[in-house]
Amino acid sequence: MQHKCVSVVAGAPDQRASSVVRSHNPADLDDVVAEVSLAGPETFVDAARAARGAQADWAAIPAPVRGQVIARLGRLVEANKEALARLITREIGKPYAESLGEVQEIVDTCDFFLGEGRRLYGQTVPSEMPDKQLFTFRVPVGVTAIITAANFPAAVPSWYLVPALLCGNTVVWKPAELSAAVGQALAELIWHAGVPLGVLNLVQADGKATFAGLEQALSAGVVDKVGFTGSTEVGRAISELCGRYLQAPCLELGGKNPLVVMADADLDLAVEGALFSGFGSAGQRCTSLGTVFVQREVHDEFLRRFTAAVESAVIGDPSQGVLYGPLIDVRYAERFERYLELVRPHHLVHGSTGIGRITDANPRKGFVGQADRGVYVHPMIVDGITAQDELYRTETFGPLVGVGTFDTFDEAVELANGHGYGLSAAIYTTNASNAFRFRERCRAGMVSVNNSTSGAEAHLPFGGNGLSGNGSRQSGVWVLDQFTRWQSMNWDYAGKLQKAQMDMVEL
Ligand code: UN1
């Protein structure tokens, strides 16, 4: 089945496509998943205006009732779990088991926020003066523009859409063109759950039109908050644009996530973690492992076991039980291949039976599926990474893991922090003091002990620092600070003007 994807503004399909592109199944490029009508900037602006028009009515619906809509969405996603996971696998090539996990993450997010509809707590605060009471309230920010990436085409959007809607905001959502069909499917589930037309508007557009539309919408005053998941480069451009309008976007950007292996670590456990976060989703998670830093005395043994694990891993058709499938798209593979230039100076490539694309002519042992039909690349482990290397600080967004060595714990911390990113980091150790010290000194927003750099749960704060983001956090109660603003109220029932500071009661 081929999906037809168009923008939907206030419930009506937008016919003003500026071009039509196709999204392909990266495991079988002959399989066209969707034909996508890409909108121009004017559609984005119209969507923001529609969202503005719908906002007051949506905010007027009591939060517990909005919570019921989120509850229905959770049940609908659950009922359609396999179908949505199959579509994710088909459109971006994520192994089916991981796609199921991704859909589960939406369900978890809904389960968390349905209850938040009955909380959204404010506070009562004592006043300096008698007969006066102070309060705080969470109020919706207004119109939110959410721009998301193809690698987590359903779960990560839900981290924005669900709390934004629950908090009484209206939304313009621009999914990635490469996952347009998944975007459309999720939007349809949200409308079916009872989110009114105009409250969620879907814009199918490329990055350029989106940026231009966002610029116009911000200058017209019809966007109040931007949420963006994607590259650091685009995140910076969005941040600069938002800054002009005195807005702070919610950003979830790249990572060069380190995994530290202390000499006292359980090495098999560390290998398992490195395999999952280095090569799962073909290294295309923002939480993917960048470099493993291993204490010198166990470096050779770790590398031996890690290499053996990668060599024997099954790669290929994402509907089978594989470690990873194809990259999301040919463009991702081309970009990844450019990074292979950075590998050359190291001359040490482990874990692979080839370099670059897996094809019939450049095969891999333990490959399942039809190599020539898809966008598959060989896994790589590059040893000898130091803080001087480009690979130390470059996110490759593919199945490539660097390995470096350290002697002291202090060196490990320095290496884990020094690349500029600060999304997630992991340490493998059996020494509790190392674990806590690492957490204290690590700049990453998310730290794992004896677990991989990936695998965030839906109710913990998700986000990074440095090049990984501006400190904004998604998920759990923390995201409420992105999608609501605090409003205070003071209520004086003294029957006379009481002046703060000047009329404070003295003892
Ligand atoms: C992302 O890659 O943008 O923790 C998000 C994880 C996933 C989410 C990754 N649950 O790896």
Please give the structural blueprint.
Blueprint (H helix, E strand, L loop, with lengths): L2 E3 L2 E2 L2 E2 L5 E7 L2 E11 L2 H20 L2 H17 L1 H12 L3 H21 L6 E4 L5 E9 L2 E5 L7 H12 L3 E5 L5 H13 L7 E3 L4 H13 L5 E5 L2 H13 L5 E3 L4 E5 L5 H13 L9 E7 H16 L3 E2 L13 H14 L5 E2 L16 E2 L11 E4 L6 H4 L6 E7 L2 H9 L3 E2 L1 E5 L3 H10 L4 E4 L15 E2 L13 H4 E9 L15
Parallel strand pairs: 1-5, 8-9, 8-11, 9-10, 11-12, 13-14, 13-21, 14-19, 15-17, 18-19, 21-22
Antiparallel strand pairs: 2-3, 4-5, 6-7, 7-24, 16-18, 20-23
Helix pairs in contact: 1-7, 2-4, 2-6, 3-4, 3-6, 4-5, 9-10
The structure holds 2-aminohexanedioic acid.
Give an overview of the whole structure.
This protein has 507 residues and is of the alpha/beta class. It has two domains: 3-253 and 471-486, Aldehyde Dehydrogenase, Chain A, domain 1 (3-Layer(aba) Sandwich), CATH 3.40.605.10; 257-449, Aldehyde Dehydrogenase, Chain A, domain 2. It has 15 helices and 24 strands. It has helices at 41-60, 63-79, 81-92, 96-116, 155-166, 180-192, 207-219, 232-244, 267-279, 296-311, 330-343, 390-393, 409-417, 432-441, 480-483; strands at residues 3-5, 8-9, 12-13, 19-25, 28-38, 123-126, 132-140, 143-147, 170-174, 200-202, 225-229, 250-252, 257-261, 289-295, 315-316, 349-350, 367-368, 380-383, 400-406, 421-422, 424-428, 446-449, 465-466, 484-492. The strands form seven sheets. Strands 16-18-19-14-13-21-22 form a seven-stranded mixed β-sheet, sandwiched between helices. Strand 4 (19-25) and strand 5 form a beta hairpin. The longest helix is centred in the first third of the chain and has 21 residues, at 96-116. The chain is globular. The N and C termini lie far apart (78 Å). The model has no long low-confidence stretch (mean pLDDT 96). The structure holds 2-aminohexanedioic acid. The site of 2-aminohexanedioic acid has 11 residues, from loops. Homotetramer. Residues 19-488 form the Aldehyde dehydrogenase domain. The active site is at 252. It holds the Pfam family Aldedh. Keywords: NAD, Oxidoreductase.
